[in-house]
Amino acid sequence: MDLKTFKKTAKKSSEGKTPTEEDVRNTAKAYEGKSEEELLTDILRMAKENKANGTLSAEQLKDFEARVSPLLNAEQKERLQKVLGMLGN
């Protein structure tokens, strides 16, 4: 599962289906081997698109953080916070 697929699954959460921990793990696995820059570029591009079309909310970002954070180590959590800060602007 890549970020676009995760996004589609997350969209279904408003329709009653929430992304599972397995969905999150599969998304992470799809990005294994990619550089941090590649991942950040993809996240920021998708966020910009979703903000422009009104499909990215602060609530969704908080939900994403809540689901992903438990799977990360301290360094990764710090990076996630930086990215979420960038997305909040």
In short:
With 89 residues, the protein is mainly alpha-helical.
Describe the structure.
With 89 residues, the protein is mainly α. The protein has one domain. Helices cover 72% and strands 0% of the residues. It is globular. The termini are far apart.
Task: Set down the secondary structure blueprint.
Elements: H1 3-13, H2 21-30, H3 36-52, H4 58-68, H5 74-88
Keyword list:
5 helices, mainly alpha, 89 residues, 72% helix
Helix content: over 70%
Number of helices: 5
Task: Provide the domain count.
Answer: 1
| Radius of gyration over all CA atoms, rounded | 12 Å
Low-confidence stretches: none
The largest pleated sheet is described as: none
Structural class: mainly alpha
Number of strands: 0
- Could you tell me the strand content as a percent range? under 5%
> Given the C-alpha coordinates, what overall shape results?
globular
Encode the helix/strand succession as letters: HHHHH
Mean pLDDT: 79
Give the CA-CA distance, first to last residue.
Answer: 27 Å
